[in-house]
Structure formats: C-alpha cells, structure tokens
From TrEMBL:
<dbReference type="InterPro" id="IPR059000">
    <property type="entry name" value="ATPase_P-type_domA"/>
</dbReference>
<keyword id="KW-1133">Transmembrane helix</keyword>
<comment type="similarity">
    <text>Belongs to the cation transport ATPase (P-type) (TC 3.A.3) family. Type IB subfamily.</text>
</comment>
<keyword id="KW-0067">ATP-binding</keyword>
<dbReference type="InterPro" id="IPR023298">
    <property type="entry name" value="ATPase_P-typ_TM_dom_sf"/>
</dbReference>
<feature type="transmembrane region" description="Helical">
    <location>
        <begin position="97"/>
        <end position="117"/>
    </location>
</feature>
<dbReference type="InterPro" id="IPR036412">
    <property type="entry name" value="HAD-like_sf"/>
</dbReference>
<dbReference type="GO" id="GO:0005524">
    <property type="term" value="F:ATP binding"/>
</dbReference>
<dbReference type="Pfam" id="PF00122">
    <property type="entry name" value="E1-E2_ATPase"/>
</dbReference>
<dbReference type="GO" id="GO:0005507">
    <property type="term" value="F:copper ion binding"/>
</dbReference>
<dbReference type="GO" id="GO:0016020">
    <property type="term" value="C:membrane"/>
</dbReference>
<dbReference type="Pfam" id="PF00702">
    <property type="entry name" value="Hydrolase"/>
</dbReference>
<feature type="transmembrane region" description="Helical">
    <location>
        <begin position="649"/>
        <end position="668"/>
    </location>
</feature>
<keyword id="KW-0479">Metal-binding</keyword>
<dbReference type="InterPro" id="IPR001757">
    <property type="entry name" value="P_typ_ATPase"/>
</dbReference>
<feature type="domain" description="P-type ATPase A">
    <location>
        <begin position="162"/>
        <end position="266"/>
    </location>
</feature>
<keyword id="KW-0812">Transmembrane</keyword>
Length: 740
C-alpha cells in the first residue's frame, strides 16, 4: 500500500479514503432529508383530516392511495439500502437490527396493502408506520455515521505540521553554498537542506552542520527544547528555535516519523473494537423467534381455530383470521422500542456530555468506557500543565558583588535576580526564558532594558546581555563561567526531584539560581484517588527521565512500579496492546501528537482539550474544559447512560413478552379480544414513548449524581488542591513578598 515509488503516496491514499467516507455521509444525509420530507407530508395529511379541512386538494393528502404511494416510495427510496442490508444479513444467518427494521417495515406495508386492496377483510391501513419507522432509524444511523467519521483518522491537523517546501542546499557542502526552495515531496535520501530559526523541519534527517535547539513537543510531548549538534537526529514536524542547521535527509515525505504516527493511528482505528453490542446480539435470535412465532400463529389458527373459537369465523374466513393474527405478531414485535432503546439514551448522554465540556465521538464509546478497568496517563500536559513554571529563586551564600567603584559589597535579592534574568530572557523564544519573564511579571518587576547590540544567545547553553551597566548571563554553569563568573563562587546545587535549574551570573559573580518545573495539575491527585476507590488500575507513561516521572507519579498517588519512563510513541502503543492482551479494557489519557498512536489503539482514547488537534481527532473522548477532573464526570456519565440503556432494553423486551402472546390470540378464546395490526402499532408507539421518557430522565439522574459526588468530595478536593498550590506556587510568592 505504501510503495517506495511515491513518497507521498501514503498521504494521497489517506486523503482519498477520507473523501470516500465524506461522500458516503453526504449520501446518507440526502436519504435522511428525503425520508423526513415524506414523513412530514404524511403527518400533514393526518393533521388536515383531524382539523376537518374540506378542500379537495387537502383531502388528497389523507387518501389511502396517496399514503400507499408515500410508503412505497419510502421503501424503494431512502429505506431500500437499510432493508436490503437486513435481508442480506438474514440470508447470511446473522440477522441484526437492520433485519428487524426491514421485517417490521415490510410487514406493516404488507398488512396495510392487504387492507387497502381487500376491504372485505375489515382491517385498517396504517401506511404511515413504515414511513415513520424508516425516518427515525435513518436519523439514528446518520448521527452514528457522522460521529464515527469524526473519530476516524482525519489527521488534517497532524499533516499540517509538515511544511510544503524545503530549502535545498546546492553547489556547496556544510552549509556553504546557495539554496533553492523545492517541494518537500521531491526530497530524496542524501539531500542536504537548510533549516533557519523558526522553520518547521520538513523531513527526518541528521544534522551535518550548525547548532540549535529544537522544539519536539509535537512529537515527544515534552515541554523543553532539545539541543541539536552535528550528528544529532531531527524529526519532521519539529520546530527549529534559534540556530541554523544543515540537515542530511534520511526519510522524506510519508516515510517520516510523522508519517509513521499517522500509519499507526490508521492501523489502530481499522481494527474492530472489542465492544459488546447487546441489542444486535439479542436481536438476531429475537428475529428468528418472531418469525417462528408468526408462522406458528398462522398455522395454529388455520388448523385449530375453528375448534377453539368458532364464533370468530363469522367475521371472515379462517385463513383471514390466521393471517391477521400472524401479521399482528410481526407488527407488535416491530423493533421501535428495541431500536430506540440504545440511540435515545446515547443521544441524551452525549448531549449531556457536550454541555459539561465532554465531547464523545460515538454512542459505542459510552458503552466501552463504562467497562474500563485500566487507565493509562501520559505525564506532560495531562498530569502536568505541560510548560515550565518558575518555582523559586535561590541566592548563594557567596553571591556578593562590588559596586562600580569596587569598594562596597552587595547581596542581590531574589526579586532583583528575577528582574535582571527576565530582562535578558525577554529577547528569547525559549520556554524557560518565557517562564522567567512570566514569573517576573507575576511579582510586578520593572522591565530591565538590555543595551542594544549586546544580546547573545547560544542554543543549548544560555543567553547574555548588558543590562544597565551590568553583564548578566543566564544559562548553564559552564555558560556563565565562560562569561566571567569565577569558579570559586560556585556552590553545590540543591537537588530537587522534579526541578531543573538555570544559573544567573552578574559580572563576575554567581548571583542566583532559578529553579523551574512542569507544574502538576491541581486536580491530578484528586482524580487518581477517586479512580483508585473505584478499583481501577492506573499507569503513567512518559518520555521524560525516570526520576522526574517517578516524582510526578508519587505526587499524584500512582505507585512507582506502574511508571514507565523514556518511552517513544510506538512504545506507548505497544504497552497499551500488552495491557489489552491481558484482558484489560484500557483508557488512555493524553494530549500530544506523540500520544496519538496510543490513544487510537486503546479501547478508549481521552484527549485533554488543551492538546493539539491530532490527539483530539483520534480520541474517543475530548475533555474540552482541559480539566482532568472531567475524566470522573465522563466515567459517571457513561455508567449512568449504560444503566439507562439496559433499563430501556428490558422494557422493550418486557413489552414484547406481553404483547406478542396477546397479538397471537391468547386472549381470543377467553375474552374474544383480537389485537389488530392498528392496535398493535399503537402499543408499539406507547412502548417507544416509554423508552424515550426513561432516556430523558437520564438528565435528572446525572445532575443528582453529580451533586452527590461533588458534595462528598468537595472538602477533600479543596484540601488536595491547596496542598499542591502551596508546594508549587505560594512558596514562591511568599519568597517574593518577603524580598519586597
């Protein structure tokens, strides 16, 4: 499928598949519009008769012949495909809901046609039954199809990360020579390309010249850039921040790491989900049972009817009575309630989720999520906020400096260190620099102006500039020493588990150390503890180093033995597959492109709303509010929805258990009662109303449950949140307040 002859072949095939899916959805929309137009005309005819309209043209809308034409057009038009699929399933020996719908529509039409063409039978025609049945079923199918298409591998957001053109190096080597812009698809292995600051890397390759920092967060999910030197590997889709690189192409076009992720996602989505489809499984046996009961009813009354109720024969022939009762069995068993049991509850459940900031990609997701027993968390951007935050500023004991005259000594304050560092870092795009600038703004530091022409940045090392009359360097220890800081002033750096550090040098003095970390989400521990109370196993995956990953896991309550660190995107997918092989139903929670393969391969993929589009596109659930606590709301909603579905199914089957024997003539020998097809249709309508009413009650049930849950956990959540805030934010604020 992915031939070497065309490097962009994969993406062309991918786009063609998506176009085919969109065309099928468009056709489904046309069928739905026609069926509901026919349904509206049918209802108009009944309403005009109800209000006693006398005009002849209005009376036409209520005539039996007109409704017969509408019903026939419905069966041959929008309902044709549905009925054919049901019949084919029946012939294959695997009847499903389509079989039941087709059987119900055809039996209703047959009975009504007999009533219209044979008035002596005394039956009432109800041609509106197949029209309304097809319209409602097509509506449910269209909504389901639309949700599934959104959940398929529509990776437009992911593919947009790849640039369309690249700067090809010609007439030179190692960055010396001219460049020409060429389409990325025309690149070949061995080509050398120039990547300027701010460029998106167009192909996987190896750095041959230059030095820069690369933002690989779109691929790895980790917030800090990575320094790239000669010999380092770079991946398509990553962003070059602040240096010029000469890269030798190793994997161009659809063969890139980005292409690998797309293929992994499509592969995961193409496999059949291990989800229970209760209605379809039962309906297969139910269809055979209804057909057998209908045939048995006809045979019984045709053979023994005269001996049991001879008086009934006065109303018509024995064959007519047997046919009427057998058709009543088919009509009363028409699966309106059974067909509506799942979609109505799912419709209410998904709309409830939308109002609470939870996007569900399909009705089957509600069922699968309610059965989840294992949750796998990504670290960065999921359990943490996904960007560095300054936690504290430390002044070394030797951080004393002389004034301009050299005869007085001065110790820098934490606020001053932050102010000077922010002045320098305001000229960089590095995430750590941005974190320092934001921290300075938070404590309302005055802007420190950098002398024009003095700013210098070395990717992977640090920055330096003249601020006022001081030379300020910010970066690694080796960097500030290169810019005049005496080695004798260095003191041992405090080891903090989840924190990194940058050094700040002022002239020849180590003036301060700025610690920063990727801050843990305020509700992370609350969510982990709540899931643990429900008996759900939890794991954490991270591309970060083990010490950092274990620190975050311990802070939120995940055991260290369930932490897997240093994993790549394909390794995350393999870990999910391993859990599934051990009979676990796995939910994966992530936010980045590096999580897309794992999200797609898991039974339930859950994307944080703050993640990139690709993660959202492949996920079963998107938490639009970007709050991890929404995971608990989604789990509760899925369980309540499935409970409602089961209640609806029990009601539908109870109705059939009672209705079918009566339709078969059980009461005829005792009371002389015959359940005509029209009455059977009315009872079928009442059963559908009962199912829909129970589904609508889901709204009240969920609201009540949420109040109960949030009420019982409010104090615990507040306590946990305040602890986290005090550890990661308030301590820094207190230091700044004391300094001021």
């Amino acid at each position: 499928m992915y031939a070497d002859s065309g490097r962009d072949n994969f993406f062309k095939v991918f786009e063609r598949k998506m176009e085919e899916k969109r065309n099928r959805l468009k056709e489904s929309g046309h069928e739905l519009a026609v069926s509901w137009a026919l349904c509206a005309v049918c209802l108009f005819g009944h309403l005009s008769h109800f209000f006693g309209a006398k005009a002849s043209w209005i009376q036409t809308f209520h005539s039996t012949g007109f409704h017969l034409s509408l019903s026939l057009f419905t069966l041959l038009g929008p309902g044709r495909q549905l009925i054919l699929e049901g019949v084919k399933s029946l012939f294959r020996g695997a009847p499903n809901m389509n079989t039941l719908v087709g059987l119900g529509a055809l039996s209703s039409f047959t009975v009504s046609s007999l009533a219209a063409f044979m008035p002596t039978l005394g039956w009432k025609a109800f041609f509106e039954e197949p029209i309304m049945l097809i319209a409602f079923v097509l509506l449910g199918r269209n909504l389901e199809q639309r949700a599934k298409i959104k959940a398929t591998s529509d990776m437009t957001g992911l593919l947009s990360f790849l640039p369309s053109k690249a700067r090809l190096l010609v007439d030179g080597t190692k960055g010396m020579g001219s460049t020409v812009e060429v389409p990325c698809n025309s690149l070949s292995v061995g080509d050398q390309i120039i990547i300027l600051p701010g460029d998106c890397v167009p192909a996987d390759g190896i750095v041959r010249a230059g030095r820069s920092t690369i933002d690989e967060s779109s691929l790895t999910g980790e917030p800090l850039p990575v320094t790239k030197l000669a010999g380092s590997q770079v991946a398509a889709g990553s962003i070059n921040l602040n240096g010029t690189l000469t890269v030798e192409v190793r994997r161009p076009g659809g063969e890139t790491a980005m292409g690998d992720i797309v293929r992994l996602v499509e592969e995961a989505q193409s496999r059949e989900a291990p989800v229970q489809r209760l209605a379809d499984k039962v309906s297969g046996h139910f269809t055979y049972g209804v057909m057998a009961l209908s045939a048995a009813t006809f045979m019984f009354w045709n053979l023994f009817g005269a001996h049991i109720v001879p008086a009934a024969l006065k109303q018509g022939s024995l064959v007519s009575l047997a046919l009427q009762l057998s058709c009543s069995v088919l009509v009363v068993a028409c699966p309106c309630a059974l067909g509506l049991a799942t979609p109505t509850a799912v419709l209410v459940g998904t709309s409830l989720g939308a109002t609470r900031g939870m996007l569900w990609r399909g009705g089957d997701i509600l069922e699968r999520f309610s059965m989840v027993n294992t949750v796998v968390f990504d670290k960065t951007g999921t359990l943490t906020i996904g960007r560095p935050v300054v936690t504290k500023v430390v002044i070394p004991g030797c951080a004393e400096s002389t004034d301009t005259k050299g005869n007085s000594r001065y110790t820098w304050s934490e606020v001053e260190i932050l102010q000077l560092a922010a002045g320098v870092e305001s000229n960089t795009v590095h995430p750590v620099g941005k974190a320092i600038v934001e921290a300075a703004r938070a404590v309302k530091c005055h802007n420190a102006e950098v002398v024009d022409g003095t700013f210098l940045e070395e990717p992977g090392s640090g920055t330096v500039a003249i601020v006022g009359n001081k030379k300020v360097s910010v970066g690694t220890l080796e960097w500030i020493q290169r810019h005049g800081v005496n080695e004798s002033t260095f003191q041992e750096v405090e080891e903090l588990k989840n924190q990194s550090v940058v050094f700040v040098g002022v002239d020849n003095t180590l003036a301060g150390l700025i610690y920063f970390e990727d801050q843990i989400r305020e509700d992370a521990r609350y969510v982990v503890e709540s899931l643990a109370q429900q008996g759900i196993n939890m794991y954490m995956l991270s591309g970060d180093k083990r010490s950092t990953a274990e620190y975050v896991a311990s802070a939120v309550g995940i055991p260290k033995e369930k932490v897997i660190s240093g994993v790549k995107p394909d390794e995350k997918k393999k870990f999910i597959s391993k859990l599934q092989k051990d009979q676990n139903i796995v939910a994966m929670v992530g936010d980045g492109i590096n999580d897309t393969a794992a999200l797609a391969s898991s039974d339930i993929g859950i994307a944080m709303g703050g993640g990139v589009g690709a993660a959202s596109e492949v996920s079963s659930i998107v938490l639009m509010g970007n709050r991890l606590s929404q995971l608990l709301d989604a789990l509760e909603l899925s369980k309540l929805t499935m409970k409602t579905v089961k209640q609806n199914l029990w009601w539908a089957f109870a109705y059939n258990i009672v209705g079918i024997p009566i339709a078969a003539g059980m009461l005829l020998p005792v009371t002389g009662t015959i359940l005509t097809p029209s009455i059977a249709g009315a009872l079928m309508g009442l059963s559908s109303i009962g199912v829909m009413a129970n589904s609508l009650l889901l709204r009240l049930k969920f609201s009540s449950k949420q109040k109960q849950i949030h009420g019982s956990h409010a104090s615990t959540k507040t306590h946990l949140d305040s602890d986290l805030l005090m550890d990661q934010k308030e301590k820094l604020d207190n230091r700044y307040s004391d300094a001021r």
